[in-house]
Amino acid sequence: MQTDSRIIFLDIDGVILSGVDWLRPENRAAAHLLESARDRLSVYREHVKFNASAMTLVNALCTAAPAQLVLMSSWRRTHRPADVRDLLTGHGIEGRLWHVDFACPVVGGKRSDVKAWLGAHDDVSHWVALDDEAGVEGLPDIGIDGGDGFTSSPFRVAARVLGADATPVLGCHLEQEHIEQLAESGISETDIGLARWLEFDRGDGSERPPSRLLRDSSYSRTSGGSLRTQFDRRFRDYLDSRALNDFA
Questions:
Q1: pLDDT tens track of the chain, all 248 residues?
Q2: In the chain, N or C terminus with fewer CB closer than 10 Å?
Q3: Range of the domain at 158
Q4: Nearest to 199 by CA among 211, 181, 188, 216
Q5: What span, in angstroms and rounded, lies between the C-alpha atoms of 232 and 241?
């Protein structure tokens, strides 16, 4: 029997649908629809924009470990778990990553639910809970901020818990000086994480990776104008060129 499987218990709110995500115009409109909706999942399916970067990092974490996903969200209590799984798959979670037993049973709080699931699967050697309220729920807390969702910082912690190497996923080729340059210019941690990921996943090399943008003379610290404004514009153009504008 295999005894080294790795599991990622996945929450939704505050992880792949963060507080910041609800500030998006389309999600603010969707929030009004949810207030009176009889079929809330249809609103989430058709109108809500989930956090594409968080989804990508979840997929990448599963691949790096490798690990499988198990639904831990409280949505299990109000919706059929299979419907929630299919909703998330439709929004970007890779279907192949779900464990065959893809949802925790509802036996109590999340800690009890996770314990019950693990009790039925004695082959698990490593597991991590992606939940912005993990500490409150009595689960190991990897530092997810519900306002920002799942970003590169908790990704690194989760990878370490699972015994995986986060460096290739987050982009080992983007030099530290460039990361510091972005941070000093007020670029968000989420976008820095995306820049690192895109640097690594640059395909056949035909696209301009973030490091190329940052090496341009217009991005030197001595150049005129706002570095953040320049980078924001060019980075958004870069994402658009990769058909990844939902990451912005």
A1: 456 899 999 999 999 999 988 988 899 999 999 999 999 999 999 999 998 888 888 998 998 899 999 999 999 999 999 999 999 999 999 999 999 999 999 999 999 999 999 999 999 999 999 999 999 999 999 999 999 899 878 888 899 899 987 765 554 445 566 666 666 666 666 666 656 555 544 444 444 455 555 554 344 443 444 555 665 666 656 555 544 433 33
A2: N
A3: 5-167
A4: 211
A5: 14
Report d(CA 88, CA 50) in Å as an integer. Answer: 9
Q: Where are the beta strands (DSSP E) in 104-178?
A: 124-130
Q: In the chain, what is the straight-line distance between the N-terminal and C-terminal CA atoms, in Å?
A: 44
The letter for the amino acid at 216 is: D
41: domain CATH number is 3.40.50
| 48: its two tokens | 């809500």
Show which of 167, 195, 229 is a domain's final residue: 167
Using the CB atoms, write b or e for 109-130: b if 16+ within 10 Å.
ebeebbeebeeeeeebeebbbb
Q: From CA 106, how far away is CA 79, in angstroms rounded?
A: 12
